[in-house]
Structures are given as structure tokens and as C-alpha cells.
Amino acid sequence: MSVSATGRSGGRGRLKGVSLVVGGALLFVSGLFAVVTGTGLSGVLGMRVETFGRVDCNDTRTGKGQTVRHCSGETPAQQRANDAERGRAASEALRAHVDGMPRPAEISRSRILFADHDGRTDPETITATQVFDGGRWYAHSSMLVGYGMIPLLLGAGTAAWGGYLLRERWRTGGVRAVAGRCGGVGVAE
């Protein structure tokens, strides 16, 4: 490690620039991931995209044009299975005097995060992306895109600043190396 005339170590600026580039790249990727999920381009990347019906959002405080954090809905496959289960429970309820109390219908619904809402009625359908198999569903919404833009822009700026520091360090490092070889006289290449 070289020591310059100001007493600073030569590798410190390089390490700072590299860490800013890596940290900025990670922020950028996470923001890009959120934007892609929120816009619906996630299907192109191989993520699972479904359209949910029978949507129920249990948030009554939502204003017009806002986003509801938690909703539930049913995919077409869940709707078919749930309709069959409701029919089974109804037919068993008719025979309750013979067989005893029937077991309740087992209805499966999926939890959906960040769904756009008009503030009055629940949407008829919501299209959402499942990032990981068995994971949560994220609705294609403006809120998710907006939240994703924050780390996207911060990451791009941080990586650019780190790249600038690395470039400056490399440029001034070349002058110092030549000056050391010439006996202390600063000669640029």
C-alpha cells in the first residue's frame, strides 16, 4: 500500500469506490426487481402471473386511488375447487339429520399485497405476480412501482458516484506512480 504526500493510504479510495459500486448495484437490482414485479413484466422473466377473481379487500380506510396493502382473491383453479367444495358442503348439510353435522367447506384463498383500490368497491379482478414458488403474491400496482423507483434511482446514483471515485483514483494514481519512478518529479503519462 502506498502513502501519498497528504498521509492517506492509496488503497482506501479504491475500496470506497468499489463498495459504492457494489452497494449501488445491489440497490439498483432490488429496485428493478420491484418495478418489474409491479408493472407485470415479471411474466417475461419466468415468474408466475395469475389473475384473481372474487377479490375481497378488508380495508375501509382507503381513499380514492390509493393502494390496499392486503387483499385476498381466488385464481380460476381455486374458484373451481371452491365451488365444488361449497357444493359438497351444501349436499352434506341436506343429509345432516342422517349423518350428523357435516364438516365445514374448506375454501382456499390467496393473499395479495399492494392492490390498487378505488376507495368504494373492491376490484373485480387483480393480476398479481408470485416471486417465489409458494411465496406471497404482489399485485401489479402503481404503489409497488413507486416504491421500487426509490432504490432503483438511489442505486444508480450510488453506483455512478462509486464509478466516478474509482475513475478519479485511477487517474490520479497514475500520476503518483510515475512521480515515484522519476524521483519525486510529477510527470504525467
Can you give a write-up of this model?
Helix content is 49%, strand content 19%. The chain contains four helices and five strands, in the order H-E-E-H-H-E-E-E-H. Strands 1-2-3-5-4 form a five-stranded mixed β-barrel. A hairpin with a 6-residue loop joins strand 4 and strand 5. Helix 1 packs antiparallel against helix 4. The N terminus is likely disordered.
β-strand percent reads 15-25%
Shape: elongated
- Low-pLDDT windows of residues: 1-8
Give Rg in angstroms: 29 Å
Give the helix/strand class. Answer: alpha+beta
State the helicity in percent bands. 40-55%
Largest sheet: 5 strands, mixed, barrel
DSSP E strands, number: 5
Distance from N terminus to C terminus (CA atoms, Å) equals: 21 Å
As laid out across the biggest beta sheet, the strand order is 1-2-3-5-4
Q: What's the total helix number?
A: 4
Secondary-structure element order, as H and E? HEEHHEEEH
Mean pLDDT: 80
Topology (elements, then pairings):
Blueprint: H1 10-39, E1 48-57, E2 66-74, H2 76-94, H3 96-99, E3 110-117, E4 126-130, E5 137-139, H4 142-181
Parallel strand pairs: 3-5
Antiparallel strand pairs: 1-2, 1-4, 2-3, 4-5
Compact description:
The chain has about 190 residues and is of the alpha+beta class. About 50% of the residues lie in helices and about 20% in strands. α1 packs antiparallel against α4.
Considering the chains and any ligands shown, give keywords for the structure.
189 residues, alpha+beta, 5-stranded mixed β-barrel, 4 helices, 5 strands, elongated, disordered N terminus
